[in-house]
Structures are given as C-alpha cells and as structure tokens.
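Dear Dr. L.,

I hope this message finds you well. Following up on our conversation about the binding site, I have prepared a predicted three-dimensional model of the protein together with adenosine-5'-triphosphate. For your records, I am including the exact sequence and ligand specification that went into the calculation, followed by the structure tokens. Please feel free to forward this to your student if that is useful.
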Amino acid sequence: MNPILKVENLSHKYASSWAIRDINFEINSNGVVGLLGSNGAGKSTTMNIICGALLQTEGDVRVNGINIQDDPIAYKKQIGFLPQQAPLYLDFTVQEYLEYSAQLRLMEKRSIKAAVEEVLEKTAITQMRSRLIKNLSGGFRQRVGIAQAIINKPRLVILDEPTNGLDPNQIIEARKLIKNIAQEHAVLLSSHVLSEINLLAREIIMIEAGRVVFSDTLDAFNNVLQPNTLMVRMLNMPGVNDLLAIDNVVKVEMLPDNKCRLHFTSNDDLSERIVKKSADLNWRLTAIHAEITVMDDVFKQLSSNFSQ
Ligand SMILES: Nc1ncnc2c1ncn2[C@@H]1O[C@H](COP(=O)(O)OP(=O)(O)OP(=O)(O)O)[C@@H](O)[C@H]1O
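The resulting structure of the complex is given below.
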C-alpha cells in the first residue's frame, strides 16, 4: 500500500540560497507527525511544497502514491491545509465560508450541506455559523481554519504553526481539537514549540537549517534528549560559589522565587548529591527537576547525533 505521504530528496532554493536540502520522510498512518524547527528552519517551505503552493527545485512528493505534476486535482483532493495566515474571508459568515471552501475543493454540490454540518460540529463552532468571521475571536477563527482544512475529509491535513498567536486558553482548546482531528486524519503539524510537539505528536521530524536532523517516534526523541540543566528551589538559597563548588556544576543562574538553574556537564548522581548537601547544610530544598533547556540546545544535541 502507498504511504499517505512520501517526501523524497526534497530541496528548494529561493533566488540563490537553499531553504531546504534533501528532505526525506514518510507518513503511513493517522495521528500527528510534528515538523519541529526553529524560525527559518524550513518548515513552511516544506509544507507549502507538499500542499502544492510552491514548486520545489528538486525532489518528489507523493500523497497516496499520486504526484502533483501527474494529477494536480487528484493530489489536492487528498490534502487539507491551514497555512500560518489562515485564508479566511472576513466578510463571510462561518457557514458561507465553509460552503465556499467546499466548492473550491470541487466537492459535489449535493454533499456540501452535510459536510458543512459535520465540520461545524467537529470543530465545535455550530453556534457561530451565522457570525461574520471578522467578529470572531482568534480561537474561533482558527477553528474555522481547521474546519475548512478537513471539509472534504482529506487523508492528510497540514497545519502550519496552528497555535501561533492564540492566548493560553485558546491554545489548550486548539490542541484538543487537533488531537481529535488526528484520530481520523494523518496530520502534519509544524511548530517551533518543543512542548507542543511533545504533547501532540507520535512521530517527530526535526529540521535545522533546511536539513532533517531527527526523524523517529516521540519516545525515541525523548530518549535522545538528555537534560542539561536542573531547576532547583531552596528556601535557604546558598550563594553562587557554594553551588559552583558542587562537582560537575558549571554555571548557576539565580532566579526569582528562591529558584536557581544549575547547568552541568554530567548528571552522574548530581541530583542525589544536591539533595544530600541540602540536607547537611539546611538549604531547605523544596523542588528539583531536570530540564531540557532551549531549542538551540536540542538542535545542537540532535545535530551532533544525527546529521551526516
Ligand atoms: N519567499 C522567500 N524568498 C526568499 N527566501 C525565503 C522565502 N521564504 C522563506 N525564505 C527563507 O527560507 C528559509 C526557510 O524559511 P521557512 O519560512 O520555510 O522557515 P520556517 O521554519 O517555516 O520558519 P518560521 O517558523 O519563521 O515560519 C529561511 O532562511 C527564510 O528566510
């Protein structure tokens, strides 16, 4: 059976510089595959090519075995896309916009009404159907964007940074919705937020400077990543020099609320030693946990492990 999505040796050059280089991956089942990368890594370029919005310089993309050049209509029918800027018509009502989206996807006229009802319900916006899109909050607009992406039941749904710009409550709701959608569709979701990908994805493709530096399951990803800092809270916080005197601690960041971040070279028994020292010296330790720090560290670690 054909993979839902197969990306082979994909490269793209804008003017004179390569934005992505030799990207390869496959999606074979429903669920979320996270496309992770920092700003400018090449996520949007990759997604725009997969959606047919941008013609690649080199390489091949197939959805259900179909190549866009061979049969653009059959190819695009298999894909739902929510770009970073949702393509909403602000003067349409939600219902008008979804009907229009269905027509653009060349859905049969007689199936449109039922399809609109179904996506209104799935994305929990039925009560907003008669509202003008310009009068909706960011969270509801994003739901409308997701609704148009799934209206023709595509095998593959592509969401480019779908929670960008939403407030924390809207982010939680949007993530719940994406999880539900992913039960019935393969979802390729891009984000530069590590925790978001961790929450949603079953597989991760990570790109850095246009190249894939990691491609495997979420479990494999978490096994590769080694924490390199400890967050510690102590009610009797010692001085920086006392903390630097602990073996393997190479840097100390003092933080508000009786907390500090300890950077270490190796975590061998470090937590245990801190707990013991705190007990001996009455530092009154109340919290200690390992942290993966920032994306840059993750990239560094993965690049050194995986890039050729
Ligand atoms: N239209 C364009 N013309 C020239 N260069 C571009 C164009 N679009 C993107 N780039 C460059 O290509 C590289 C990849 O950009 P892309 O937008 O794909 O990254 P991204 O991972 O989606 O980043 P972000 O998270 O900021 O959207 C960047 O160096 C970017 O500056």
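In brief: The first strand starts at residue 5 and ends at 14.

With kind regards,
A. P.
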